[in-house]
């Protein structure tokens, strides 16, 4: 094949030839452009310097370190391969079709690209393809046309490959490092989340966490369920701004602090107030959103406070969804704000959803539209909390490649009917009068525990605990006073409330003391006990006893 006729048609060759014809350059002028004028007088060699256009194309291509191949015709028959190509893949027979003679191009999927270049007449480039032997190349395919009357079969394609192995390996090392960092952050994030959710008596709960896709660094989303005792449950969800290990570490510190503050059994807004100060101490430049809620089965509502977090959604037993939007304070770490608590009904048959912004926030979409879509999905979601959780995630279009972390916490207050309802009972007595209220409370407790068919030993312990709690309230509390007995399928709860907000504490009574032993007795005989201040002023002191498991359990 006449290579010079092909070289004359390479891109740019005709333009340079036309330019030389229109603007001839003298040898003297060409020499002036070859070296700086200041050094010209020291040169003794006056031989002419050849121009690039005077060099044979084949001589140039044979010496370039890049791989060059020229193919022609619809079968891409080999017209030329340079020395670098031969050194990389071995000698190739001229005139043979590329599919059989250039298997390396077929293996990396370049033959369809040659067809496309031949049809379109436009150059194409593919970056960093790994060829047989392990080297990586960037291939540029450029169309070339043989002059009319040639015997080369018409149009062809010049394949030019640059070795980019070092760049590809560096990029792969960088990607591997980023993957390791992300895996570290995801592992840290998951290890800081609850491995198993606590299971309250009165609620059914499910949660899920989806880290962002492989191109997104893990964030600081978290959730938690904390049983407070006395039948109450705290539910938490939050989101630390930022990504990576730092966000996950801050999340872990906040989650640990929430659990510690929850043990104080404070109202939701006071917990957020403490968290706000702690977030500032951890990192003044790091902010986080958080929603903290408490469910009390005796009140039939969810009391909550929000620090810049998205509103809790609640669906009642009839399928109506409402948004608990107020009150909402600024995010944690901003300081100088007094948070407030609100409440939303959560009766039997209701479902509540706490979530982070990754579930509802999308680029180029209003956030309220995402929340409204979640409301519609919740209205049509039914089944167990886990089923509802999965349906909400699917309806939001969350996939493994999602660009943000997603945390969802779903809780249900089951509507119990039939035999199941017999395992959840309540009884209450207002403590009126003076010291005579104590024997009335003991008699009331004895009758209730008998009607609930408790075994004799548990009956006696319950009556004793009732007597001590009521006596403590009569001695140290103020009216109004109230005794409440509650049973679930797992425990007996005894609670006494009064109008004094001074919380009792367990102390060691000296032999000569006539008082100070009541709380110690309760703490000894009960499975758990505690006290808290009530929202309207006053306090509640409670204890609980674990019920024996049924014989067939």
Number of helices: 16
Described by strand count, sense and barrel closure, the largest sheet is:
6 strands, mixed
What would you call the structural class?
Answer: alpha+beta
Low-confidence stretches: 1-21, 25-35, 37-43, 148-153
Quick check: average pLDDT? 84
Q: How large a portion of the residues is in β-strands, by DSSP E?
A: 25-35%
Helix residue percentage: 25-40%
Rg measurement, Å: 40 Å
Structural key phrases:
553 residues; alpha+beta; 6-stranded mixed sheet; 5-stranded antiparallel sheet; 16 helices; 33% helix; disordered N terminus
Question: What's this model, at a glance?
Answer:
With 553 residues, the chain is an alpha+beta fold.
């Amino acid at each position: 094949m006449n290579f010079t006729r092909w070289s004359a048609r390479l891109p740019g060759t005709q333009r340079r030839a036309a330019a030389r014809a229109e603007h001839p350059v003298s040898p003297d002028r060409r020499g002036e452009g070859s070296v700086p004028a200041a050094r010209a007088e020291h040169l003794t060699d006056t031989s002419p310097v050849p121009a690039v256009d005077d060099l044979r194309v084949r001589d140039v291509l044979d010496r370039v370190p890049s791989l060059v191949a020229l193919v022609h015709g619809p079968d891409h028959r080999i017209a030329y391969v340079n020395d670098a190509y031969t050194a990389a893949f071995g000698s190739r027979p001229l005139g043979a079709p590329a599919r059989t003679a250039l298997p390396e191009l077929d293996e990396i999927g370049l033959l369809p690209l040659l067809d496309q270049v031949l049809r379109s007449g436009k150059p194409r480039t593919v970056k960093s393809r790994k060829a047989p032997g392990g080297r990586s190349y960037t291939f540029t395919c450029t169309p070339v046309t043989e002059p009319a009357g040639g015997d080369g079969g018409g149009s062809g394609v010049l394949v030019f490959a640059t070795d980019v192995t070092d760049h590809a390996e560096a990029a792969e090392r960088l990607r591997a490092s980023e993957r390791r960092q992300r895996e570290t952050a995801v592992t840290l994030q998951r290890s800081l989340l609850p491995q198993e959710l606590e299971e309250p008596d009165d609620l059914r709960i499910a949660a899920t966490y989806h880290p962002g896709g492989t191109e997104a660094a893990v964030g600081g989303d978290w959730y938690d369920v904390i049983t407070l005792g006395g039948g109450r449950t705290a539910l938490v969800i939050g989101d630390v701004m930022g990504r990576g290990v730092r966000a996950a570490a801050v999340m872990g510190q906040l989650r640990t602090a929430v659990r510690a503050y929850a043990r104080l059994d404070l109202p939701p807004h006071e917990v957020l107030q403490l968290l706000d100060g702690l977030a500032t101490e951890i990192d003044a430049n790091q902010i986080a959103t958080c929603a903290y809620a408490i469910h009390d089965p005796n009140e039939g509502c969810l009391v909550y406070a929000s620090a810049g977090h998205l509103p809790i959604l609640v669906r009642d037993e009839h399928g109506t969804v409402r948004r608990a939007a107020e009150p909402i304070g600024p995010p944690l770490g901003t300081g100088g704000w007094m948070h407030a608590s609100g409440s939303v009904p959560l009766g039997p048959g209701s479902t509540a959803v706490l979530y982070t912004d990754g579930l509802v926030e999308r680029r180029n979409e209003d956030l309220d539209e995402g929340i409204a879509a979640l409301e519609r999905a919740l209205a049509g979601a039914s089944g167990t909390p886990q089923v509802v959780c999965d349906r909400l995630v699917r309806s939001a279009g969350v996939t493994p490649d999602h660009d943000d972390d997603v945390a969802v916490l779903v809780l249900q207050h089951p509507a119990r009917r039939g035999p199941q309802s017999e395992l959840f009972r309540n009884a209450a007595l207002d403590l009126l009068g003076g010291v005579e209220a104590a024997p009335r409370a003991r008699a009331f407790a004895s009758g209730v525990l008998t009607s609930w068919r408790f075994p004799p030993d548990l009956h006696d312990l319950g009556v004793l605990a009732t007597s001590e709690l009521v006596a403590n309230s009569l001695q140290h509390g103020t009216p109004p006073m109230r005794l409440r007995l509650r049973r679930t399928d797992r425990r007996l709860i005894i609670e006494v409330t009064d109008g004094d907000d001074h919380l009792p504490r367990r102390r060691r009574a000296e032999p000569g003391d006539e008082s100070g032993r009541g709380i110690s007795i309760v703490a000894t005989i009960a499975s758990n006990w505690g006290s808290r201040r009530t929202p309207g002023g006053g306090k509640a002191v409670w204890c609980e006893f674990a019920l024996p498991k049924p014989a067939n359990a």
